[in-house]
Design brief:
Strand content: 15-25%
Number of domains: 1
Radius of gyration: 24 Å
Order of helices and strands: HEEEH
Shape: elongated
Distance between the termini: 16 Å
Number of helices: 2
Helix content: 40-55%
Length: 115
Amino acid sequence: MDHDDRNDDLRKRIDQCKAEMAEVGVVLRGSVTRRYMPCGKTGCKCLADPPVLHGPYFQWTMKVEGKTRTVRLTEDQAAIFQTWIDNDRRLRQILARWEDIGQDAAREIQGKSSR
């Protein structure tokens, strides 16, 4: 493969990353969890053996300035937030591939200079 073909290949791979990034919507970091919890009230079935916990409760957990923050969500909000978190993960995968393209380009240049 000659130089122009390699450059065309790199450009095509980068254009593919750009196209995929353009399809990503809202991006949000963190995680959504579904929890069942006891209330602790005397005589409540959540303290029985076996316990029947309350819930589900949905939570979004994220890091803010190095500290973990948790926010309670409705089930509908949890579904939306999960989509946004999935978008974040997808975006990170695309960026990782883009970085791999840069590594390939660097190796190509290094290979040329050592010849």
